[in-house]
Amino acid sequence: MISNTKIISYLSNRGWILNSETTKFQFYSAPESFGFEDQYLLPVPFNTESTDYNRFLKNTLNILAEIYEVSIDELAAIIEDDSAIFSIRIEDNDTVDGKIGFDRFEELIEGVKELLLDTASFVISPSIQVNSKPPEAYKYLNHCRFLQTDIGSFIAKIELPFNTIIKENEVFTSEITATVINSKLRSVLSYVKESVFDSDGQFDQTHLDTNQENLNLNLLKDIERIYEKTKSSNIEFYFSDIEKSTTINTTNIFNGSLVKLSNLIQRIDEKLIDQGPETLIGRIISLKSKDPHGESNEIIFGTSLNNKQIKVKVKLISDYYKKAVDAHKDKRNIKVKGVLKKMKTQYKFVSVDEFSVPE
């Protein structure tokens, strides 16, 4: 439902300032960045008892749509439905009239689906590679809706959930909302644009360590696939919600930029070669956590692999970490199932599918 408070939130988050008010309206001054010759004041009705309140609200919404050059449907999805908007604009000679070939459209739809699924999986199971998509990732995808496309180029618009709870709060685990997943997608796409496409193409260990929060092999391959399979050199990604709007514009991708992304993917793949699925049982040696309620807790445990004693490092989410603390206190074994990677001096689970304390 549209309300003046939601419209005011939308305005305030974009730099509009309350200027004055009457018995029926509050008037907001437009940001200087719009470049209006004279001061522009937007009326926002606030007297809910007025018989014209709803009509005035719709008028305000229409004016905002014209100012920000967006459709009423898009603005209503943000303000009325408490959703977010994610759009992908493909701009070339074949999409000038807003049409796109069926094969490119099919590849785009499949690419967007995997992009959204893998973003949700990355947030729910933070690791450089996610081997299976959790049920919550499909829950997030099921809340997404395609909107009517725009013309002038081909624009696919998706209505994303915003404050919807995707993963419920559990013991020692914070809930995950759709907002967090949307922010991660925006963050990864910005990283690819600024630190990959616009970089010198050198992805050393320092780069990988610095950008760890945006590195997920599944996601990077999804992005690469969208460009390659849709044969699109110029793609604009756009996000908008009640808080802000962000545009990530990528151009001339086939002129060397996509090669950089492919090189990054290959670099990560090389780091993951010496690894595979494994289930190990052992005894905890050490625990490390700055915030047990967070998602980046760490343990090291001793076990045997191929008749050889080894040490294994594991990052655990908070509910797993609590079980690990209890097991360590009671001097009990733990069981970890996931993808194991051989490092220089020890082994490391790069992803964890299951964690338990055997009886």
Q: Return the structural class.
A: alpha+beta
Number of strands: 15
Q: Return the average pLDDT rounded to an integer.
A: 90
**How would you write the strand order of the largest sheet?**
5-6-4-9-10
Total of helices = 10
The Cα radius of gyration reads 24 Å
Which percent bin holds the helix content? 25-40%
Overall 3D shape:
globular
Summarize the biggest pleated sheet: 5 strands, antiparallel
- The succession of helices and strands, N to C, reads HEEEHHEHHEEEEHHHEEHEEEHEE
- Tell me the β content: 25-35%
Compute the separation of the termini in Å: 52 Å
Unreliable runs, pLDDT <50, ≥5 residues?
none
Oligomer: single chain
Structural commentary:
The protein is an alpha+beta fold. It is built from ten helices and 15 strands. It is globular, with a radius of gyration of 24 Å.
Give the tags.
10 helices; five-stranded mixed β-barrel; 359 residues; five-stranded antiparallel beta sheet
Brief overview:
This protein has 10 helices and 15 strands.
Layout of SSEs?
Blueprint: H1 4-12, E1 17-21, E2 25-29, E3 41-45, H2 53-68, H3 72-79, E4 83-90, H4 102-124, H5 135-142, E5 145-150, E6 154-161, E7 165-167, E8 176-177, H6 178-197, H7 205-210, H8 217-230, E9 235-240, E10 245-250, H9 253-271, E11 275-288, E12 297-305, E13 308-316, H10 318-329, E14 333-342, E15 347-356
Parallel strand pairs: 13-15
Antiparallel strand pairs: 1-2, 2-3, 4-6, 4-9, 5-6, 7-8, 9-10, 11-12, 11-14, 12-13, 14-15
